[in-house]
């Protein structure tokens, strides 16, 4: 949160660390190192955490779990921690946040595992629970960056916006596990799996037999929801490709497309292939599924996932951000096109709490014209009576309804349509899918189905 919103009038001072940052086996010391690199580079926190753990294989399972919990927890509470640090005259820093978070958790200073200065010991004694105070700014309480505050309240109104923002602050362990159906030629806040190369009952039974508390997802017919975070290596079927990690909202988005065996289907912004896998499953590995993206690296990661799951009807292609001769030749050839457009990602803040403070991505103002351009490019590929699905993992009206309204106004050859008859997810009165953590317990997603009529 900006310092301008802070009531404290004291001059801010820096948190200075002793020369020894911390013992190698200190979760707090490791957390500070990771969070400092994140502040310096803006790199996604989950990637930094995974890389740090891989490069420190000597860490015990206990230290790894403490490290993950500390890093993600501090990111989830960053605005509130910064507010409290400023309130005692400190400039927020990775070290200050980690130490303050430790204090608010009620742990003795002797358990920090770091050498502390006398000044740190003094201000840590002022960090008394609860973390939130009556005078704390609402944006800090709800962990909402300044740029998103007005759009959230414009989208949801004064009554519902705080509820939606609060839900985005909640912890989520893993997305859902989708089960890959046997028709393939080879094989918040809670974890979700998708099971598709075996039946969901069989996958659920195997996971429960391993001592993991799990249940079917409420909407997706393929998903399994885990009650708590567990080590990935303990999830039965994940290594073999029988189940995959995918949020239930993402599973429903793929089902919204209504892909059928034998069709030409295009995943226009395919990324690392989660929805491509789901589309291939709905097609029974029959027909052609084109996975397109401007990033070759993301497509390569998707190729590995498809190979692991036994998907054999996917063709991947890198497309140019501007004019692309190959793309031009695909005009009106596809029966169905999914556009999972680049967006602010606010619907996934539970899983990626650091993303709300990221300075490395495009701003909302920059994203809106890009989304309109991507949607218009993808629409050219849809055949007569074909289906175009526009989707984001955002909750904000300018990225969702406003984009669809603007597109339909500029493209009278398309009409808003209803989802497939068998679609299992929640649908609003206008036929659009609007998922949110507060209402549905999954990531926030928007999906609109359109049909080419001329």
Name the beta content range: 5-15%
Mean pLDDT: 88
Straight-line N-to-C gap: 49 Å
Report the count of strand segments: 13
What is the H/E string? HHHHHHHHEEHEEEHEHEHEHEHEHEEHE
- Uncertain spans: 1-11, 18-24, 181-190
Structural class: alpha/beta
In DSSP terms (H or I, runs of 4 or more residues), the helix count works out at 16
* Spatial shape: globular
Using only CA atoms, what is the Rg?
A: 23 Å
What about the largest sheet?
8 strands, mixed
Determine the fraction of residues in helical runs and give it as a percent range.
Answer: 25-40%
Describe the structure.
The N and C termini lie far apart (49 Å). The chain is α/β, with parallel strands linked by helices. It has helices spanning 27-41, 45-55, 61-76, 78-87, 94-104, 118-124, 138-141, 146-169, 200-209, 248-257, 274-282, 296-309, 325-329, 364-379, 401-410, 437-440, and strands spanning 178-180, 192-197, 214-216, 223-226, 243-245, 264-267, 288-293, 314-318, 334-340, 382-392, 414-416, 433-435, 445-452. α1 (27-41) packs across α3 and α2 runs antiparallel to α3. α11 (274-282) links the parallel β6 (264-267) and β7. Mean pLDDT is 88; it is low at 1-11, 18-24 and 181-190. The strands form 3 sheets. Strands 6, 7, 8, 9, 10, 11, 12 and 13 form an 8-stranded mixed β-sheet that branches. A 3-stranded mixed β-sheet has the order 1-2-5, covered by helices on one side. A two-stranded antiparallel sheet has the order 3-4.
């Amino acid at each position: 949160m900006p310092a301008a919103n802070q009531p404290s009038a004291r001059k801010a001072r820096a948190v200075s660390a002793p020369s020894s940052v911390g013992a190698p086996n200190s979760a707090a010391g490791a957390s500070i190192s990771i969070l400092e690199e994140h502040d310096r580079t803006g790199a996604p926190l989950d990637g930094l955490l995974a890389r740090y753990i891989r490069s420190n294989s000597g860490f015990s399972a206990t230290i790894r779990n403490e490290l993950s919990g500390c890093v993600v927890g501090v990111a989830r509470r960053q605005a509130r921690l910064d507010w409290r640090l400023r309130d005692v005259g400190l400039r927020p820093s990775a070290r200050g946040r980690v130490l303050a978070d430790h204090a608010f958790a009620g742990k003795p200073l002797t358990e920090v595992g770091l050498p502390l200065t006398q000044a740190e010991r003094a201000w840590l004694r002022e960090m008394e629970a609860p973390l939130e105070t009556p005078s704390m700014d609402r944006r800090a309480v709800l962990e909402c960056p300044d740029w998103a505050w007005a759009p959230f309240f414009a989208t949801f109104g004064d009554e519902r916006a705080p509820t939606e923002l609060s839900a985005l602050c909640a912890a989520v362990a893993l997305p859902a596990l989708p089960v890959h159906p046997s028709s393939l030629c080879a094989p918040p806040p809670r974890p979700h799996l998708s099971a598709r190369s075996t039946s969901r009952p069989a996958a659920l039974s195997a996971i429960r037999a391993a001592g993991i508390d799990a249940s079917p997802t409420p909407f997706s017919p393929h998903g399994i929801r885990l009650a708590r975070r567990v080590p990935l290596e303990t999830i039965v079927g994940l290594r073999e490709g029988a189940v995959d990690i995918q949020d239930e909202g993402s599973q429903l988005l793929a089902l919204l497309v209504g892909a059928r065996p034998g069709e030409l289907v295009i995943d226009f912004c395919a990324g690392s292939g989660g929805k491509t896998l789901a589309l291939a499953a709905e097609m029974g590995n029959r027909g052609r599924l084109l996975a397109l993206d401007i990033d070759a690296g993301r497509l390569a990661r998707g190729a590995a996932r498809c190979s692991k799951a036994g998907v054999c009807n996917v063709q991947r292609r890198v497309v140019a951000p501007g004019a692309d001769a190959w793309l031009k030749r695909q005009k009106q050839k596809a029966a169905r096109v999914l556009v999972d457009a680049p967006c602010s990602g606010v619907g996934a803040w539970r899983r990626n709490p650091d993303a709300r403070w990221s300075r490395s991505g495009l701003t909302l103002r920059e994203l809106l014209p890009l989304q309109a351009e991507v949607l218009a490019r993808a629409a050219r590929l849809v055949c007569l009576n074909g289906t175009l699905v526009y989707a984001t993992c955002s909750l904000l009206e300018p990225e969702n309804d406003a984009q669809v309204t603007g597109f339909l106004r500029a493209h009278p050859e398309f009409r808003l349509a209803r989802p497939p008859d068998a679609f299992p997810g929640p649908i609003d009165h206008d036929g659009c899918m609007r998922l949110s953590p507060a209402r549905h317990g999954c990531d926030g997603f928007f999906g609109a189905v359109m049909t080419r009529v001329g």
